[in-house]
């Protein structure tokens, strides 16, 4: 299978860049558990505001990404939206820079493990999951090189962690890309009314090492009108963190500090079975 795509994404609010991807994807192998694909993508990063931080500015421009990706997946859950029993596992490996493109040589590995345990009353079930990922540059003196900002991990947003198998991105309670390293944007004098320098804000840079986990208790509500409408309750706990390892930052990595700085959220929510976005 071959597929051509054109994708534009606006990350100006969070990371001061816009991304445009023109690519070809070739499916080399696709079975129930295995998927192997090759992607050739012309990637363009721009900053129309000219306010991006130094780390973002260094990665602006055009690049050709040539990458091979392999995914192994097992999903024995009874539902992808509201699982009540079963388990799931996903491993995704990607090697970028097969044509030795500067700045786009990297190795990315993700793992995601899920399990659901029924309780036998009110259609209640406990879902737990752990995800982890790492992206490393592939170059001479690789730990002092930089990883592509678009291929790093980001945490935050409002998507349900129960639905997103294989995505280390959801961390309910935090704004989109709201966790991890940041850097001040360019300071521009004269932007405020009195002619002084305006507060520049910060760019979220993403991380090279990410860990996330969740525990979710779903249950039917006692009122029939809610059950007929497909509305059910959730009580969930989410936690996650990410750090930067490239550009020599691995020297500053501390496991104790990584554990102490975990973002943790505990909430009670109402969800509809028709979608995974929910309302709280």
Automatic annotation (TrEMBL):
Q: What sequence ranges are listed for the domain Bacterial surface antigen (D15)?
A: 16-268
Q: Where does the record place it?
A: Mitochondrion outer membrane; Plastid, Chloroplast outer membrane
Q: Where is the signal peptide?
A: none
What membrane topology does this protein have? Multi-pass membrane protein
Look up keyword Iron-sulfur and say if it applies. no
Can you name a GO cellular component term?
Answer: chloroplast outer membrane
Going by the UniProt record, its keywords in alphabetical order are: Membrane, Plastid, Plastid outer membrane, Transmembrane, Transmembrane beta strand
Which InterPro entries does the annotation name? Bac_surfAg_D15, D15-like
Q: Which domain of life is it from?
A: Eukaryota
Instruction: Family membership, please give it.
Output: Belongs to the SAM50/omp85 family.
> Record's PANTHER family?
SORTING AND ASSEMBLY MACHINERY COMPONENT 50 HOMOLOG (PTHR12815:SF18), SORTING AND ASSEMBLY MACHINERY SAMM50 PROTEIN FAMILY MEMBER (PTHR12815)
Q: Identify this protein by name.
A: Bacterial surface antigen (D15) domain-containing protein
């Amino acid at each position: 299978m071959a597929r051509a795509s054109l994708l534009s994404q606006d990350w100006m609010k969070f990371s001061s860049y816009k991304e445009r991807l023109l690519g070809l994807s070739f499916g080399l192998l696709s079975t129930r558990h295995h998927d192997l694909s090759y992607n050739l993508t012309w990637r363009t990063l721009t900053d129309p505001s000219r306010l991006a931080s130094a780390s973002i500015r260094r990665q602006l421009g055009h690049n050709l990404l040539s990458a091979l990706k392999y995914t192994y997946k097992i999903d024995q859950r009874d539902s992808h939206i509201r699982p009540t029993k079963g388990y799931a596992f996903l491993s995704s490996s990607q090697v970028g820079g097969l044509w030795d493109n500067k700045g786009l040589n990297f190795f990315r590995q993700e793992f995601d493990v899920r399990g659901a345990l029924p309780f036998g009353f009110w259609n209640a079930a406990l879902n737990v999951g752990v995800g982890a990922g790492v992206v490393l540059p592939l170059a001479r003196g690789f730990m002092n090189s930089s990883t592509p900002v678009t291929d790093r991990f980001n945490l935050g947003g409002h998507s349900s962690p129960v639905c997103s198998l294989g995505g280390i991105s959801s961390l309910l309670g935090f704004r989109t890309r709201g966790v991890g390293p940041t850097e001040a944007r360019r300071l521009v004098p004269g932007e405020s009314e009195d002619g002084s320098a305006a507060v520049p804000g910060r760019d979220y840079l993403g991380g090279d090492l990410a860990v996330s986990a969740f525990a979710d208790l779903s249950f039917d509500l006692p009122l029939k009108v809610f059950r007929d409408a497909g509305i059910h309750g959730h009580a969930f706990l989410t936690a996650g963190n990410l750090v930067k390892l490239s550009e020599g930052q691995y020297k500053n990595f501390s496991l104790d500090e990584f554990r102490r700085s975990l973002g943790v959220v505990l909430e009670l929510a109402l969800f509809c079975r028709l979608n995974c976005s929910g309302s709280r």
